[in-house]
Structures are given as structure tokens and as C-alpha cells.
Specification:
Chain lengths: ~260, ~270
């Protein structure tokens, strides 16, 4: 069953519209326009994604790869409803949990316990559901001793562990993972990968963004290579990763990141 | 299975249904606001009372004792505290709601949830302070031997209008702040001027009669402040026409503020 589908999706940022402005700048812009200087032109637009279409089936693990700025993270942000497409349509069936920078929803002054409640409810859970999963979350994150400590005293590794544990135990239909696991230590990373794989076998769909090609190959059956907001390749992860590798070698050492 | 089409809807009914689905989060963020505000402060909750109480003392000394300001026969401390309560509620709602979206940009750019929850939580946390500070008002009433009459029940509609009004202004200004940071600089000035044109230090009866209707129509806070005084202390009903007009204005403002907020929300993550 198709759980995610994108059809002809484009995301365009108008560079002059990015960021807040002061009323003074706004007046200057209106003034410039009155004087006949045209404020917005085509060079002003940045196409983060142009006309991409793909669908993901339930239980699939899809890797998104490509250079920085190729549009990978924009795809995740669209699926997470953080930003909206300029044109095209996106349909997602079921609940989505995003791990776009773990711990983003955490509040530094609150304890781990309070943050689990907060994070769970941001992800749309009821209190009873959070309580029910609480012990497993704490156990997975290995934070029993620190659960009543304010998270501002946590190390970055502890932060990641708590964030991943919450997302991994709310059983979403779709899990979006953006490069976050790179922060944790190797044994915790392995544990996360194992948990993701376990959830996937139970029917969860995973969209995984990473620069770590071996992790993509290990976790994902399928991969999509993005470049300048367009799909360059879509197929079995191993082949797409290999294609990406050969393109990078072909582009010479200047393309090395 | 819930099917989500990721496109922006301009249907307010759909947004409201979603807000209801996320009520648990509204409650959580409100609790977070309250807890974080008092967690590391020595006096904790007492701060909610200290603010209106200290202003009341200063006003009483300078305006009542020195300047002999009339207060409709009510002891001046009661007279000013009854007005400072709803005023502090509005001021603290706005002070915390206006920068709230910018302050929470790290969440807004990473996780989806209905964004209006953030400024609305500021209003609810201010309401919590208001109720706490109202406890001190009850003590003042006992001290001055003022007994409430059944008309004191008018505080229920007054409270509803007051919250709707504060929520409307908060939604409007907080979303506008995402576009134009100027609002943050204007807000303290706006609140100061607004406080002086609201009958807190003085009774509304000092406004010349021919302007009084316009005065109340232009400032729903004046209606609310005078309403509390008459309902609780004087034991008379607030002017029905004025209260109704303030209620209609607050409802319209809440609707317009919500519609404007949701209209801008689509681009918050791209701008903030």
C-alpha cells in the first residue's frame, strides 16, 4: 500500500522573503518599487525542489542521498508538515514522527521526565499513552538515573538518546530520520538501527536522510539521489549509492565533501 | 488510517478541529510556561501577586493620598487593585505571547503542531497568574469589609470577554511579529499608553460625558476594568450595552486574529 505519495512537487523560496524584516526595510522596498525598480525577479527565486514525484509503500525504508543543498532535508520538512509545497500535491497516510535534529522539542529547564510528556504531546499523543510507554523510553535511552535532571545538564549524547527513544516508542506509521544518529556513540547507533529495523518489519515506513552511505545501504532497500532539487536516480539502495559514488569520482576531487 | 494531504487549508473550521485534537499539547505547553517561569525564582508564585500589589501601593500613595484622586467612594487600594488585575493579565499575556513564536523557532522549524498553541499557552499561563492574584483580592475585600452581592456573578461574562480579547490581540500581534520584529520594540510603549488611557488610576467618570460612549467603544479594556469594579465592589450590574459591545468586539477580534494567524502560519517555518 502506498503510504506516501508526492506528485510534481516544487518548493520555491523567494530569497527576499526569507527572514523577518523591519518596517523600515519594507518601506524602502515599496519606495524602490514606486521609483520603478522592480523588486522581485526570477533570480530572486531559489528552487529547493523542482517537480519531483515519487511514492513510498508501507514498510519500505527509503534513503535520500545527495550533496548538501540538494533538497533532501526539504523533502523531510514537507513530509513533516513543517513547510508547504509551492506547487504539487503530497499525501501521507498515517501518523508521522520526525527526528529532524533530535531533542528540538526539548525544553532545557525541564527534566527528562517532563520533556518526555512534552515531546509526546507534540507528536500528538495522549497522556495515558505516554505514561504507558514511559518506562520503555527511559530504559531504551539508558537515562534512569538522570530522568529527573533538567535536560540542560545532559550531554549531547544523552539528548540524542532521549529524543530517539521517544520517537522510537510512539509507534508512528512513518518515521523521518535526518542525520541525527551521527551524534550518538557507536553502540547506541547500532541499537537505534536495530530498533528502526524492528519497527520496519512491523510495517513502519522509514525515510532516512544521511551522508553515511554504508548506513543507507544497511538500513534502506531503496534510495533516491537528489541533485539541485531534482531526482537523479531512484532504485535499489546499493545501485543508487554506487551511481552516486561514481558520479562523485567522475566530478573529480573538487566535489569531495 | 488518517490521510493527510499536505497542503494549506484556509478553512478555519478545519484548523479549529485540529486545535481541539491537540488540546493535550496546549495544556502541556501552558504547564511548561508556568513551571519554567517560577522554577528558579525564590518567591515562585508570589510574583504573580507582587506585580499588581506593588503598583497598587504606589498608586495609592501618590494618586489617592497625595493627589486626592476620587474613587467612587471605594477604598482606593481596592479600586486600583480590581483594575490592575485584568490589566496585568492583558499586559503579561501580550508580553509573553508577542515574542513567543520567535523564542520557539527551534521547535517551529523542526516539528509540526498547530502553531497558535504557543501564544495561546502564554494567555492561559497569564490567566493562571490572574487567578492566583485574584486570591489576594479576596483577602483585600475581607480586610476592607466589602461583601460581594449576587451581582458579583457578572465576573463570569467579564472573564470570558477578557480572555477572548487578550487571545485575539495575542494571536494578531504574535504572528505579525514574525514578519516584522518592530512589534517587540513598540509593545512596551503601546502597553504604557494603553494603561494610562484605561481607567485604572482614575474612574471612567472623569472622561467628559459626551465622549464616554466613544471611549468605552474604542477600548474594551475600559469596559472590563469598570465592569469588575461595579460587579464585585459596588454590587451593581455593568452597563449591559457596553458589555455587549465589548463582547462583540472581542469575538470579532479573536476571529480576525485567528484567521490572520492561520493565514501567516503557512510560511512561519520559512521566515522565523
Amino acid at each position: 500500500m502506498e503510504i506516501i505519495s508526492l506528485e510534481n512537487v516544487s518548493k520555491r523560496y523567494r530569497l527576499s522573503r526569507l527572514g523577518a524584516r523591519s518596517i523600515r526595510e519594507e518601506l524602502a522596498r515599496v519606495g524602490g518599487r514606486l521609483l520603478g525598480r522592480n523588486g522581485s525577479s526570477d533570480d530572486d527565486d531559489f528552487h529547493a525542489l523542482s517537480d519531483i514525484s515519487f511514492a513510498v509503500d508501507q514498510g519500505e525504508a527509503l534513503g535520500l542521498i545527495g550533496h548538501n543543498g540538494s533538497g533532501k532535508s526539504t523533502v523531510l520538512k514537507l513530509l513533516a508538515r513543517i513547510t508547504y509545497p509551492t506547487t504539487g500535491s503530497i499525501v501521507v497516510r498515517g501518523s508521522v514522527a520526525s527526528l529532524i535534529e533530535v531533542g528540538a522539542g526539548f525544553h532545557p529547564e525541564l527534566s527528562g521526565r517532563e520533556n518526555i510528556d512534552l515531546y509526546g504531546s507534540i507528536m500528538g499523543m495522549r497522556r495515558a499513552e505516554i505514561r504507558e510507554r514511559f518506562d520503555r523510553i527511559v530504559d531504551f535511552a539508558e537515562l534512569e538515573r538522570f530522568i529527573d535532571t533538567p535536560v540542560k545538564r545532559y550531554s549531547s549524547g544523552m539528548y540524542v538518546r532521549l529524543g530517539f527513544a521517544v520517537a522510537a516508542f510512539i509507534n508512528p506509521h512513518v518515521l523521518l530520520v535526518d542525520e541525527v544518529l551521527a551524534v550518538g556513540d557507536a553502540s547506541f547507533q547500532a541499537k537505534c538501527m536495530q530498533r528502526i529495523e524492528e519497527l520496519r518489519r512491523n510495517g513502519m515506513t522509514v525515510i532516512f536522510v544521511s551522508h553515511d552511505m554504508s548506513a543507507v545501504e544497511r538500513l534502506c532497500g531503496r534510495a533516491i539521489l537528489l541533485e539541485h532539487g531534482k531526482i537523479l536516480a531512484d532504485g535499489p539502495a546499493r545501485e543508487v549509492v554506487e551511481f552516486y559514488g561514481s558520479r562523485q569520482r567522475g566530478a573529480g576531487s573538487s566535489a569531495s565533501e | 488510517m488518517l490521510e493527510t494531504r499536505i497542503e494549506w487549508s484556509d478553512s478555519l473550521a478545519a484548523h479549529l478541529r485540529e486545535l481541539v485534537r491537540y488540546r493535550e499539547l496546549l495544556w502541556q505547553i501552558t504547564r511548561r510556561e508556568i513551571r519554567v517561569r517560577y522554577k528558579q525564582s525564590l518567591l515562585g508564585m508570589i510574583w504573580a501577586v507582587v506585580q499588581p500589589l506593588s503598583l497598587m501601593v504606589v498608586f495609592t500613595v501618590f494618586f489617592s493620598w497625595f493627589a486626592r484622586m476620587e474613587s467612587e467612594g471605594i477604598p482606593y487600594p481596592l479600586f486600583s487593585y480590581a483594575a490592575l488585575l485584568p490589566w496585568s493579565f492583558l499586559a503579561s499575556s501580550l508580553t509573553s505571547a508577542v515574542p513567543s513564536l520567535i523564542a520557539n523557532s527551534h521547535i517551529i522549524t523542526r516539528i509540526y503542531f498547530p502553531r497558535e498553541i504557543i501564544p495561546l499557552a502564554s494567555v492561559l499561563a497569564a490567566l493562571f497568574d490572574f487567578l492566583f492574584a485574584a486570591g489576594a483580592f479576596v483577602l483585600l475585600m475581607v480586610w476592607y469589609g466589602v461583601a460581594p452581592t449576587p451581582r458579583a456573578l457578572f465576573i463570569v461574562p467579564l472573564l470570558v470577554v477578557q480572555v477572548a480579547f487578550a487571545a485575539g490581540v495575542s494571536l494578531l500581534l504574535s504572528s505579525f511579529t514574525v514578519l516584522y520584529r518592530d512589534v517587540r520594540h513598540v509593545l512596551p510603549l503601546l502597553l504604557q499608553i494603553w494603561m494610562f488611557v484605561t481607567p485604572i488610576l482614575y474612574p471612567a467618570s472623569i472622561v467628559p460625558g459626551r465622549w464616554r460612549d466613544a471611549y468605552f467603544a474604542l477600548n474594551p479594556m475600559a469596559v472590563i476594568v469598570e465592569g469588575y469594579r461595579s460587579a464585585i465592589i459596588l454590587g451593581t450590574a455593568p452597563g449591559a450595552g457596553r458589555l455587549l459591545l465589548a463582547a462583540v468586539e472581542s469575538a470579532a477580534l479573536l476571529w480576525a486574529g485567528y484567521a490572520y494567524f492561520k493565514h501567516l502560519e503557512k510560511d512561519f517555518a520559512d521566515i522565523v
